[in-house]
Amino acid sequence: MKKVRLGIFGAGRGMTLASSMMYMDTVEVVAICDSHKGRLEAALKRLDESVTAYENFDEFINHPMDAVILANNFYQHAPYAIKCFEKNLHVLSECIANATMGEGVRLARAFEKSKSIYMLAENYPHMLFNREMKKIVDGGTLGKIMYAEGEYNHPVSDWDTYFTKRYRFYPEHWRHYLPATYYITHSLGPVMHITGATPKKVTAFPMYVPTKEEIPTATHNADKTASISTLNDDGSVFRVTGWAQYGAHHNSYRFCGTKGQVENLRGMDGRVMLRYNEWDIPEGADCEKLYKPLWNDKDEEFIKKSEHGGADFVMGRLFIECVLAGKQPPHPFDLHSATVMSSVAILGHRSVLEGGKPYDIPDFRKEEDRKLYEEDFLTPFFGDGGEAPTLPCCSNPDYKPTEKQMELYMKELEK
């Protein structure tokens, strides 16, 4: 049986993804790379002794392998994907695909020249309730889908020292400069996957709530989330969030057609509500049905051991299947869809900064669209060499943590 020789770049999230994929007898992890020695050593304890460890990506990429998991910093995937393309290595890239518009252009051009399979490692479409809702939408009983919602709502306590030390562990960390629209794939990915639609225009508005003075923080963004709307290629409309922080924690999605609607209900443990108009009830169906779906999957044993409710395994399985078959993944996991999601995130933030101004979403398969953005590298994040951000991350460009908040934050790191 042919095996895919897999390399891991990023021993944190990358190791989590690889752990799910290692349940497959078609996967062999052969190398791992991380500049953080502690993370690297911890990962090696969970891997076979034959796995080679690297601290330098340029050395790692020369290791004999077929595919690479890119699980480095959120905003730094594109340059490493391009290096993989240059060696015709297959890529499973964590989100987002590109953090600037110019990177999206470079990514598309480099991909065209390669023989690589590229897949966005967006796992939320593969969660059980989303898988069930795709079956319903694909079945056609809801009619034409006109409207869909996706919310990735993940509030974090202001006093969560563990989160701070694990995920925001120095003042210039990217999470301190993350615009409200950028972490978008967990909300946009599922609605694109389930409907098959692709955004063509975006507009967005922020929810600005300054952090209280007594909170230890180094964040430069007080937008708790943004409401992002897209007009799509099939005439439908999406309303999604980036990383939202309001109300109580939930991941929720809703799909409304001409005959009915389906949604996973907030706070209902993955239950799905399917409803039809009383004059459009399919034969043998109920007007309303609330139920908890089942996997009914040949790999359910491994799915239930996997992170994110089993979605990590299902996503990884799709990638390996594509590599072995020599085919690109389906919408919205392919490179074109991945750059569209990034464009919605990036241009959605520019809409926030400009009072909701609508932006057209480019198609980076077209050279004329590439020309529009090939020199656009505006970023809210610090550069690799410590270069300052070139774009405000907050709807209030002057917002920043106070001296007291920074002092309290630094004390939190010392605990």
Indicate the topology:
Blueprint: E1 4-9, H1 13-21, E2 27-33, H2 37-44, E3 52-54, H3 57-60, E4 67-70, H4 77-86, E5 90-93, H5 101-113, E6 118-120, H6 128-139, E7 145-153, H7 161-167, H8 185-195, E8 199-208, E9 223-232, E10 237-244, E11 250-257, E12 260-264, E13 272-276, E14 288-291, H9 300-303, H10 311-325, H11 335-353, E15 359-360, H12 367-373, H13 403-414
Parallel strand pairs: 1-2, 1-4, 2-3, 4-5, 5-6, 7-10
Antiparallel strand pairs: 7-11, 8-9, 8-15, 9-10, 11-12, 12-13, 13-14
Helix pairs in contact: 1-10, 4-5, 5-11, 6-8
Task: Give an overview of the whole structure.
With about 425 residues, the protein is of the alpha/beta class. It has two domains: about 5-125, NAD(P)-binding Rossmann-like Domain (Rossmann fold); about 125-315 and about 335-375, Dihydrodipicolinate Reductase, domain 2. Helix content is about 30%, strand content about 20%. The protein has 13 helices and 15 strands. The chain has helices at about 15-20, 35-45, 55-60, 75-85, 100-115, 130-140, 160-165, 185-195, 300-305, 310-325, 335-355, 365-375, 405-415; strands at about 5-10, 25-35, 50-55, 65-70, 90-95, 120, 145-155, 200-210, 225-230, 235-245, 250-255, 260-265, 270-275, 290, 360. It has a nine-stranded mixed β-sheet, covered by helices on one side. The chain has a six-stranded parallel β-sheet with strand order 3-2-1-4-5-6, sandwiched between helices. Strand 2 (about 25-35), helix 2 and strand 3 (about 50-55) form a beta-alpha-beta unit. Helix 5 runs antiparallel to helix 11. It is globular and about 60 Å long. About 45% of the residues are buried.
